[in-house]
Amino acid sequence: MRVVILGSGRGSNAAAVLEAQAAGQLGRARVAQIFSDQPEAGILSLGAQHGVPSAFLDPAPFKTKLEGPGEERYIEAITGCGADLVVLAGFMRVLKPRLLAAFAGKVINLHPSLLPSFPGLDAVGQAWRRGVKVTGCTVHVVTPEVDGGPIVDQAVVRIDPADTLESLTAKVHAAEHALLPAVIARLSEALRIEDRSPRGN
Ligand code: GAR
């Protein structure tokens, strides 16, 4: 299962996926390519460390969504990688129906809250300010509704009285680093089960 990772930031979740792959814990999934919409993003330096091609891909002309010429560039590049799964690991841009139709049901996103609670930006801060006692992270299939697609899996993080926003953020990240590789591995195993189904009789 060829995986393409899209990210905009430091790439700690992409790193967790690549470390799981190096440890033989990513099932039949292999990271084929990393793309970023930010030319200076930390996620781009991971490729060199792990022997995975990584590149800035111009998302222009929009600032917060991927539509028009930028969307076409991403569709062409991801198609060129032969991607079976597209993983948004901190890709801070809204995907539009054209790209989602090109990879229907194959795009998953990691979000730092227990959706449907706290969609959108600063999800950890939203949970912290609301005073909930549990939060966590979610992997979901991406649909045109932002953070609204079918939930694949979630991990729960308890908010303790001693927590600060910083310690909570660290706990949510740690939960993400375990959840995302585990989900990718499971999805790749699901493909393997399909491959085993009887044929020709
Ligand atoms: C992660 O916490 C991810 O859940 C979040 O961005 C962070 C990326 O961190 N994504 C969103 O908020 C998407 N709405 P990373 O660059 O260290 O992997």
Per CATH, the class reads Alpha Beta
The termini sit apart by 26 Å
Helix content: 25-40%
Largest sheet, order of strands side by side? 3-2-1-5-7-8-9
SSE sequence, one letter per element: EHEHEEHEEHEHEEH
Give the full name of the CATH homologous superfamily: Formyl transferase, N-terminal domain
How does CATH name the architecture?
Answer: 3-Layer(aba) Sandwich
Global mean pLDDT: 95
Q: How big a fraction of the residues is strand? A: 15-25%
State the domain count.
Answer: 1
List how many beta strands DSSP finds: 9
CATH topology: Rossmann fold
Q: Which parts are unreliable, with pLDDT below 50 for 5 consecutive residues or more?
A: none
General form:
globular
Structural class estimated from helices and strands? alpha/beta
- Rg over CA atoms: 17 Å
Main β-sheet, in a few words?
7 strands, mixed
How many DSSP helices? 6
Which small-molecule ligands are present, each listed once?
Answer: glycinamide ribonucleotide
